[in-house]
Amino acid sequence: MNLISRISARSPWLYRINAGSCNGCDVELATTACIPRYDVERLGCKYCGSPRHADIVLITGPLTVRVKDKVLRLYGEIPDPKVTVAVGICPISGGVFRGSYAVCAPIDQYIPIDVNVPGCPPRPQAILEGVAMAIEIWKERL
Amino acid sequence: MPESLALLLSVAVFPGGVFALGLGLALKGVDRRLAARLQRRVGPPLMQPFFDLVKLTRKRTMIPDVACRAVFLGAPLAGVVAMLLAAALLPVPGLYEPSPALGDLLVLFYLLAVPAVVLMLAGSASGSPFGAIGFSREMMLMLAYEIPIVLVIVAVGLKTGIGRGEGMTLSLTEIVRYQRAHGAFLLDPAMWPALLAFLAFFPANLGIVPFDIAEAETEVLEGPLLEYSGPALGLFKMMSAAKAVVVLGLGICLFFPSGPDGLPGLAVHALKMLALMAVGVSVLRVSAGRMRIDQAFGFFLKWPLALAVAGVAAAVLA
To answer: From chain B, which residues contact A within 8 Å (Cβ)?
Structure first.
């Protein structure tokens, strides 16, 4: 691994996709994991508003049928190299919505998932650990 | 050294080019760290803007199907070049005086408008509706803050010109020399209205809270920058870093160029920029919320404009 990859890995920008989540995980992502106490910015992370700026994608929700096409299209808009983190139990197995006619979970049938962060919702510490693991994987791809 | 080579060096190495970019990125790093500390966070490393830039070179540049390719890729390049040229136009008090061949304060003023124009072009060329919203907001904001800053420059030019027993001076070199000989305008109460107008102008020009209306990431998803990725986005980051150096440097040259000669003068200059950045950008950024575009428009056509007019009057009468 050369120097440029090592430096690049210190600037992972986060992007959130809500694939039909109940918002529980989104609250954990948007507020709890971002508040001063947990501070993802010390890892060099930054939440970005545009999929084009994203490096690490955080997906929440069981991928409902109605948002499936939009999520897949959005995922295609994210420039390589990228790493995907499934946040919460819903994208991993469907969680409480498992077996419903309205969801397409597990999400890794459609999108390659690199890190799973289970929980309903996961604790902020778990999300931060997931992001840290994603950074390690991202380093290999740069 | 032949004149043309010296000009080239001043644009490409010092005080434009490499130096302006490095200083700008370092200032951004300090700003992010300070903002984090003010919110009781640990914050990113001081070198974070450099890491971001290196990272962006490794990402793929994606061009939307509907975008106008030449303008989409050309706009950020034009912005960076304009800002490096502008940095070479600014004197570093006690160390560097720009060659008259590069231009005077008027040229600098036009170059300062380039980043806003570039953002508008980028926003409209990307073909994204968010870019179009960013375009219209950037244009409104620019129309609002251009008038006060012209008047501030006129006030300082008149003050220097009258002090030297002639009309208006549009040479930054003369303005800096005059203040170093007769005391900084910062300490002259007659110049305070103009100073206050400048202090209101520069957050809007740098596009930070409360005036980051065009690039509001929570409302219009970074507006004109929405469709940019990879190296092209990196060029925008470089442009805004160099712009911070130019705008802060302009403020220092207009109002407070005192300090020692030679290399210590450069250190003092950088420290002044750092202080202005810390108070005017970091503290403001964490303590204020974003204005709406109509509020910002009204604000600039009210207070900074009134202050700038008062500044011109005071410069002539006092």
So the answer is: 32, 36, 39-45, 48, 50-52, 54-55, 57-62, 217-218, 221-222, 225-230, 233
At A83 the three-state DSSP class reads strand
Residue whose C-alpha is closest to residue B271's, from B62, B40, B30, B76: B30
For the packed helices B230-255 and B69-89, what is the interaxial angle rounded to 10 degrees?
Answer: 30
Q: How far is A16 from chain B (nearest CA, A)?
A: 13
Convert the pLDDT of each residue in A21-45 to its tens digit: 888 888 888 776 666 778 888 888 8
Q: Where are the domains of chain A?
A: 3-141
- The pLDDT assigned to B1 comes to 62
b/e string for B69-92 if b means 16 or more Cβ within 10 A? eeebbbbbebbbbbbbbbbbbbbb
Describe the strand order of the beta sheet including A56-60 as a list of residue ranges. A46-47, A13-18, A56-60, A83-87, A115-117
CATH T-level topology, domain A3-141: Rossmann fold (3.40.50)
CB B122 within 8 A of CB B131: yes
Q: Does the interface predicted TM-score (ipTM) exceed 0.90?
A: no
CA distance B221 to chain A (A): 5
List all residues 6 or more positions away from B156 whose beta carbon is below 8 Å from its beta carbon.
Answer: B175, B185, B191, B194, B254, B255, B315
pTM, two decimals, is 0.86
